[in-house]
From TrEMBL:
Domain of life: Bacteria
Listed name of the protein: Prephenate dehydrogenase
Lineage: Bacteria, Pseudomonadati, Chlorobiota, Chlorobiia, Chlorobiales
Organism: Chlorobaculum limnaeum
UniProt keyword Transcription regulation, yes or no: no
InterPro entries listed in its UniProt record: 6-PGluconate_DH-like_C_sf, NAD(P)-bd_dom_sf, PDH_C, PDH_N, Preph/Arog_dehydrog, Prephen_DH
Keywords: Oxidoreductase
Amino acid sequence: MQQGIHTISFVGLGLIGASLMQALKRAAEATGRKIEMIGFDPGFDAGDIAAITGKCGLDRFEPNPAKLYDADLVVLCAPVVTNIALLDEVKPHIRKETVVSDVSSTKAEIATRARELGIEFIGMHPIAGREQQGYRAASPELLDGRLVILCADCTNPETARAAELAGLLRDSGCRPLFMSPEEHDRVYANISHLPQLVSTALMEHCRENVAWGGPGFASMARLAGSPWAVWRDIVETNRDNIADELEAFSALLAEVAGEVRSGNFEALEAKFREANDLYQRLQERSGA
């Protein structure tokens, strides 16, 4: 395969951005390639710049937009609304062949804006994370075996540059999977955004009894600790899909409530059996 990615710029060097940078650098080195890793983060001071340059995988910290965006691949690693706004800043500086990507949790709105600006866009969504934040918690191992959703806004996602990026991700230990931006947002409204809001609502519903909760309740409520600053952007850019999922789940809860009230244990047992089976499959797939 012809190799067109020789420089990658990361705009935002937090946990996911820095981990992805390290993973791609490790993959390049393992396959005998030289890819320069450039980055910028507006929150970094001199100590942060010194710490992340070199041993953490960054080759050059670059605050000058003209030089920062002069790369083969530009990866936006801020919250999604900020990333959408950054596209307008990126556009005047990128080359015609530059591919722009991001690591946001929603994809349709940013893909639409990139299309309006005439930017070649391949969105990324690494399905990974940890409770610690920041580049000091970053590690290439964070992405080992993890799905990375690739959203190419074209009828054939396996373009040369998309295929090269997917290959780099495979070499770094990830499992790339192509989806359209619209399909991505529908799927993750169901398996990510719905659980977050259910956990948040659960804590509100149970607030008077939280002090007596045990490990099971704590597991159900874990997502309630997520910061609103992150989730505001996700909700804002995927409102219709999330609202559809909440309404459908509310209808299912009403059905379960009816079965409990009427003592329909046969229906409840069937739900438990199906949930047990799905949970087992989930555990096997995740390697737990």
